[in-house]
Amino acid sequence: MNDVEEAVTRVHREEWARVVAALTRRFGDLDIAEEAAAEAFATAVQRWPTDGVPPNPGAWLTTTAVRKAIDRIRREDKRDDKHREAQMIYDDDPPEPVGAIEDDRLRLIFTCCHPALAVRARVALTLRMVGGLTVPEIARAFLVAETTLEQRITRAKAKIKAARIPYRVPSAEDLPARVTGVLAVLYLVFNEGYLATGPGTDPLRHDLTAEAIRLTRLIRVLLPDDGEAAGLLALMLLTEARRAARVSAGGELVSLAEQDRGAWDAALIAEGHRLVRERLAAAAAGAAPGRYQILAAINAVHTSAGDVRDTDWSQVLALYDQLIRLDPSPIVALNRAIAVAELDGPQVALAAVDRLGDTLAGYHAYHAARADLLRRLGRSRESRAAYDEAIELAGNSAEIAYLTRRRDQLR
């Protein structure tokens, strides 16, 4: 990949959400915003190799996308919308500020996460419109077919247009009821950056994790007393703190047990631990912790251990027991089984994992967990077959490299 191609790729990751959000604010139409943004990036691919990358790529893309949008509106020649069209084309005055925080991308998130949409549609639409993820990437996150995801996004945009869902941050009194869906979206955006699944993408996408953290900080400002907003921020910080140690120089994923803990970001860990302590104090005062707060506490246990041998697995398992009562999902059960293996041995853990096979057969981490437990039990042939399944289903290049090496080490 040459320098211009690298610049286009980097700018797409950094500026996609800003361009789409700016166009949505101006034109009030997600279809127009997305298509015009895509056309602007396509124009950049054509022109930048000759003209050079502009000094302010984001501004260039936004200006180009606005022109593309106006051209589209003119071509469609909507007679009923002539007055609105004239305003779009000639009114350069910015709209009045709306909502508690002045951030176009945050407005876009709340629009995409409106309760009039189904929960899955909210998440898929926001990952596409704000996160800039492709349909295949989102489909992997949902474990569904790409055509299903495409239809889900199309229907969600049509619903926003038909219901005239406003493009704004909700009022202060409406925020608590609306924030749950937003947090779910931000968590999935973060997870896609934490372990990127797109073919040809970097195994870790700091742009996505950084954006998810930035927007979660804004949610935290909006709702300083919301325990789950604080918990999600803590979870993200404690996870992001390990980023520098998670992929080897050879491009292979490094397991938590093998990571150089001296490479972890001490400042992020300290901030994450402080947030966890705040939520533990709130829980002691009677505030029941939510899913993100418990996950943050689990990560706090891991990042408190100077060596993997110092990990308090009893505390980790107790937290998973608390989490599974709140969220009895098979993925939580799978992660709990990994903690069980450290306390009760791989045989007990394998029995728990095998019970999840009917629901997690298409999930690569299920097969990876089985492969490791079978390896520890000396059942090499079965372990190799499980590794093959995990490698086939995994979408992250660093994880595939790690799983392949582990498989090839089997006798």
UniProtKB/TrEMBL annotation:
Entry keyword annotation includes Mitochondrion: no
RNA polymerase sigma-70 region domain: residues covered: 18-78
UniProt xrefs under InterPro entries: DUF6596, RNA_pol_sigma-70_dom, RNA_pol_sigma70_r2, RNA_pol_sigma70_r4_t2, RNA_pol_sigma_r2, RNA_pol_sigma_r3/r4-like, TPR-like_helical_dom_sf, WH-like_DNA-bd_sf
Gene3D superfamilies reported in the protein's UniProt record: 1.10.1740.10, Tetratricopeptide repeat domain (1.25.40.10), Winged helix-like DNA-binding domain superfamily/Winged helix DNA-binding domain (1.10.10.10)
A Pfam family assignment: Sigma70_r2
Keywords, in A-Z order: Sigma factor, Transcription, Transcription regulation
Domain named DUF6596: residues: 178-278
UniProt entry tagged with the keyword Transcription: yes
GO molecular-function term, one example from the UniProt record: sigma factor activity
Domain named RNA polymerase sigma factor 70 region 4 type: residues: 109-160
Any one of the GO BP annotations: DNA-templated transcription initiation
UniProt record similarity statement: Belongs to the sigma-70 factor family. ECF subfamily.
NCBIfam families found in the cross-reference section: sigma70-ECF
Descriptive protein name: RNA polymerase sigma-70 factor (ECF subfamily)
Upper classification of the organism: Bacteria, Bacillati, Actinomycetota, Actinomycetes, Streptosporangiales
